[in-house]
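Limitations
The structure tokens in this dataset are predictions for the assembled complex, not deposited experimental models. Users should treat interface geometry with appropriate caution, especially where small molecules or nucleic acid strands are included. An illustrative entry is reproduced here so readers can see what is and is not provided.
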Amino acid sequence: MKNLRVPARPEFLESIRAYVLQMAAAAGASDSVLFRIELAIEEALTNIFKYAYSETGGELEVACSVSSDPERTLTVVIRDWGVHFDPLRCEPPDISQDLNDRPVGGLGIFLIRKIADRVVYCPLKNGNQLALSFNVP
Amino acid sequence: MLITETREGNIVVLAVEGRLDSNTSDQFEKQLFSMVEQGEARFVLDFGGLDYISSAGLRVLLKAAKELKKKDGRLCLCSLRDYVREVFDMSGFAAFLPIHPSLETSIKSLS
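Predicted assembly:
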């Protein structure tokens, strides 16, 4: 399937979601795995809208591939042309904190790292590339 | 997302159906906080019809729980589907947001 290239704006979340979930379902992902993939992708995309393109708009490109090994890993590569933003360098929230101490926000990246089986960030000359891999049981 | 409001005495029950994500969380936040500002202090969020929640939805719940705590109010959730419940466990939110199996037990806990 062709890569998907769309404007990096919230109203395009739905088309990216549909594209990724279609690929994941074709790879044999169960409903609960589809739910987790959907969540990680939304969190990754909203971070791009917020940080990579906080000043300017732009586009992003999403490519899905499924490995042929017995583990059947779905890899979703998201590329943007915004400012450098490395989600892996963000301090994860302390999830043992109680209500009073818990800061509002900062959870998206934590959820991505919790859900994806592998996260690889690569700064590009003019943008960012984030690869999220999920084992599809 | 569809929010249906009902009342049980001084408890407000908001049944949320559909998706609570980065596109819908603003609407949810507005509706919930307008009621908090009007002085409502006890809420049950019935998530039996909730298909999906992301950190955008969690953010609103955390903000509301903090605000209600200041006002001596309370908020609890009920009827979560398994994979929605998993997000609350993963994020640690299940530790400070009371989650009940049914609407009846939620209302009992706030009465």
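Some entries come with short summary sentences. For this one: The first helix of chain A runs from residue 13 to 26.
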